[in-house]
Design goal:
alpha+beta, 464 residues, Transposase, single chain
Length: 464
């Protein structure tokens, strides 16, 4: 608000005017309050014109503050009519949570990707609207395609397409899956700097509630141990846990072979050539290590101690030669202080296979050793109860089953049919205890600090 004056033949008047913007976007003003004439105010305030103007400006400031406070505290009343029925079939409640996702969707320029797909194909439906709604509903309310379509109808911007258009669009999106992945990766760099110097790779699988194999849905070992066909997925994730690329492959295929085709896409389609590959032991075959030793790539992978050769296994399990990761000082892990019981210790040696010169790093964690010991003691107790009761399942495939500690003996000196005797296998318990707290990784980074290598490896299970 501001002070304005008007002059007539007989007097000069002072006003407070309020400027505001009308609905059509134009700016105008109106008289908010009349303060009086110069003669009246001079007599009232006992001052000249300059004094009246200073007083008027102070009044304008006070009125401005008062107006702002009233506006902030203003109550808006919306009338509702309890006797008026709602129109049948009319949507009166709308969901707007997808608007937050919509911002990210368009920052990733997925609409432009859809435009590229549309230019290569001939269809009438809006593939960008279908893809965006599928993305929003998958995050907000995961369900089937039909249910996702129903959920999208509650959005502020209801779908302009039909359900059959969704099913038709799925095959088009599947055919352009590689294009979408590579373009999203490139566009994601407009939003944030990708931590793609380290790439973690892992596989999982999903079951289908069908009675027989169909296409890539094959019988295989599922994560949930269901007797249904499964399809497998390999996924690359960057150092911040953000997905980079994925591939789908048949449920009966060895997951070791899934790495190279997907990594070739990352190298060629994504244009990403320099990174450290990190995976668990199940995806760390000799071939995968050799593949990631090429070019500007390197690898840090988990190494199973149990699969090492005899001499290397004995060295790894020997409790001498360990050092603190924090300061590289030698430590006797058989006599640790209270301060060291939460620490991490390591030893290393060159590890050469038929095709690669590597570095084998073995770590020991007292905290993890205590955890494994407590788990095993509970399992031994269960195994002991099995021996006492004589109750066993005929077939046990789980490697963590307590029954692995139960031995079986059936011997008689007379050569007669012997009765089977079960016993607690102390040798097996003692052998398994040797691995408590032990963990190993292999890498072709021969000169990098151990702490940095272990930090990368630790990120793998944190992301999982």
């Amino acid at each position: 608000m501001r002070v304005t004056t008007t002059k007539s033949k007989n007097a000069e008047s002072f006003y407070i005017t309020h400027s505001y913007t009308k609905n059509n976007g134009t700016t105008t003003s109106r008289i908010y309050k009349k303060l009086g004439t110069l003669a009246e105010l001079s007599k009232l305030l006992n001052t000249d014109r300059d004094g009246v103007m200073l007083w008027a400006r102070e009044q304008a400031r006070i009125e401005t503050e008062k107006y702002k406070n009233e506006r902030d505290c203003k109550t808006v009343l919306i009338p509702f009519h309890a006797d008026r029925p709602l129109d049948y079939g009319k949507e009166v409640f709308h969901e707007g949570g997808y608007l937050f996702l919509q911002s990210i969707y368009y920052q990733l320029r997925l609409d432009r990707i859809c435009r590229k797909i549309r230019d290569k194909n001939s269809f009438e439906y809006d593939i960008n609207a279908i893809l965006s709604d599928l993305v929003y509903t998958r995050i907000l309310e995961p369900s089937s395609k039909r249910s996702s379509y129903k959920a999208a109808k509650k959005f502020l911007e209801a779908p302009s397409y039909e359900l059959h258009d969704v099913y038709r669009a799925l095959s088009v999106l599947a055919d352009n899956c590689d294009l979408i992945q590579s373009e999203v990766y490139k566009n994601s760099n407009f939003i944030l700097k990708r931590n793609d110097n380290i790439l973690y790779y892992d596989c999982t699988n999903y079951y289908f509630e069908i009675g027989q194999e169909c296409g890539d849905r094959k019988y295989g070992k599922g994560k949930e141990h269901r007797p249904n066909p499964i399809i497998q997925m390999g996924l690359f994730i960057d150092g911040d846990g953000i997905p980079l690329a994925f591939s789908l492959f048949p449920g009966n295929q060895n997951e070791q072979t899934s790495l190279k085709p997907l990594e070739q896409k990352v190298l060629q389609d994504f244009g990403h050539q320099k990174f450290i590959y990190c995976s668990d032991a199940g995806l760390a075959s000799e071939g995968n290590r050799v593949f990631n030793h090429m070019g500007e790539r390197a690898f840090i992978v988990t190494q199973s101690i149990k699969t090492l050769k005899k001499e290397e296994k004995e060295w790894a399990l020997n409790q001498s030669g360990f050092r603190r990761v924090s300061d590289n000082k030698p430590v006797d892990i058989e006599n640790l202080s209270d301060e060291d019981k939460n620490g991490l210790f390591y030893k290393e040696e060159p590890y050469t296979t038929a095709k690669l010169h590597q570095r084998l790093i073995v770590t020991y964690s007292p905290k993890y050793a205590a955890y494994q010991k407590s788990i095993r003691e509970a399992q031994v107790e269960r195994a002991s109860r099995m021996v006492d009761s004589g109750k066993f399942k005929k077939e046990r495939r789980n490697p963590n089953d307590p029954a692995r500690f139960v031995g079986k003996m059936a011997v008689t000196s007379e050569g007669e049919k012997a009765s089977i005797r079960y016993y607690l296998d102390e040798d097996k318990i003692e052998e398994e205890a040797r691995y408590d707290g032990m963990y190993a990784v292999c890498t072709d980074l021969l000169d990098d600090p151990v702490g940095d290598i272990l930090k990368v490896s630790e990120g793998r299970w944190q992301i999982e």
